[in-house]
Amino acid sequence: MLFHSDKTKDNLVAAMPRYVYSWFYYSGLRAMPALDSIPYSREDEHFLWKVWYTVGTIFPKHHGAKKMITRKTFTSLLLLFVVLCATVYAQTRTEVAFPDINGYRTITADLHMHTVFSDGTVWPTVRVGEAWRNGLDVLSITDHLEYLPHKDDVLPKFNRPYEIAKPEADKMGIMLIRGAEITRDEPHGHFNAIFLSDCEPLNTPDQKDAVKAAQEQGAFIWWNHPEWKRDDGKAWCEIQQEYLDLGWMHGLEVFNGGSYYVNAHQWALDHNLTLLGNTDIHAPIDEIYNYAEGEHRTMTLVFVKENTPEGLKEALFERRTVVFGSGKLVGREEWLRPLIEASVKMETSDITLRGKSPVVVSVFNACAAPLDLELADRPSGIAFPKSLLLPSGKSAQMRVQGGGNAPAGTGPIEVSYAVKNALLAPNTPLTIKLVFKVTFAQ
Ligand SMILES: [Zn+2]
Ligand SMILES: [Zn+2]
Question: Which ligand places an atom closest to the C-alpha of 112?
Answer without folding.
Answer: 2
